[in-house]
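Section 3.1 - Work completed
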Amino acid sequence: MMLRICNPTNAEPQNIKKMPFLQQRMNSQLEQLVMDQIVPSLLDQGFFYIDNFLGEFVGHIVLGQVKNIHHAGLLKDGQLAGRGIGVSKRDIRGDKIAWVSGAEEGCEAVNFLLTLIDNLISLCIGQLGIKIRERSKAMVACYPGNGTGYVKHVDNPNGDGRCVTCIYYLNKNWNAKEHGGILRIFPEGKSYVADIEPLFDRLLLFWSDRRNPHEVQPSYAQRYAITVWYFDSEERAAAKRRFRDLTGSAGQESSAS
C-alpha cells in the first residue's frame, strides 16, 4: 500500500535534494570503515555498530519521516511466528511496526538511509565470503514506552536466508538508566553479553542466525528503529524450495482427502 504522508515542513524536499552529495562523500569513508573495523568485528565478535552514521541533519529528517508514519496510524502490532498456549503476545513482543520500501511518498530520507546501508553491505560481501543479492523491506518499529520489550530470540533460527541484521536507531537524548530499551546480544560461545543502547543515528550490524540470540529490554519511552535483513542467496533459495515442497505436499494431501 502506498504511504500517503505529509512532509513536516515545506523545506524538507529541498533538503532531500542535497543528499546525493553527502552520499558521494560518505561512500569513500565507508570503504575504509569496512576494511578496518566492520569486517574484522563481524568475523571476531559477530556484531558491530557505527555512531553518527548519517549525521544530525539527515538523521533528523529520517526521524521526522518515521514519526509521520507513526502519527498517521500506520504502525501495527508486530507479529509472532508462533507462541505457546496462554502466552500473550505483549509478554513476548511489544513493538508496533510498518513495512516500507523507501519508494513511498514521504519516505525519501528513509530511502537514502537504505541506499547507504546497501552500499555498506555490498562492500562487506566479498570479504565476508557470503553471497547477498537481496534484502527485506525496511521494518519501521516503535516500542510505545509502556514497559514492553522483546524476549530473547534469534532472527533466523531455521535457515530462512536472513544473514545480516541491520538496525538504525532514532532516539535522541536516550538515557538507558531511565528509558531502558537496551538491545542485549548473547554472542554464541562468548563469556560476555553486549549491551547496545538505541542511540540516535547509531547503526548496528550483527549475524541474524543462532550466533546472536538477543533481546530488547523493557522500554519506558518511545523507542524508534528501522531494521532490514540481508539474505544469503544460497540459503534463501533453499528455504524457498522447502516452502514450495511443503505447500505442494499440503495441496496434494488436501486434494486426496
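Second construct:
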Amino acid sequence: MESNLKETSAPTVGSKTEGSVNKISRQEVGRHSDRTSLWIVIHDNVYDVTEFVNQHPGGMEIVLEYAGMDATSAFEGKGHSPNAKEMLTKYRIGVTEDSICRG
C-alpha cells in the first residue's frame, strides 16, 4: 500500500488500518473548516490543505467553500492537471471511514 501521508501537528484522529492509514470520520473532517485548520475530502482521501490554501492558483475562496466537506465533484469538475493531482498527495492525512467499508 502506498504511503503518502503528510506529517502533521494535528492531533491523532480516527483509528489506524492495516498499513497505518488513518481512518477519519466525515464528522471529524467537518471540524476542520476554516483557514486555521482546513481539511477536504477528494475520492474518500482526506487532505489537510491548511498550508496550501493561500497558494491555490484558483484562489483560496473555492477551497474555503469546500472546507470540511467532500470536494470531489468540484476538484474533478475543474479538470485539474496530473501535476495538480500529484501535488495533492503530500497533503493526504488519511481516508474516510466509509471508504474502508466499501473496500
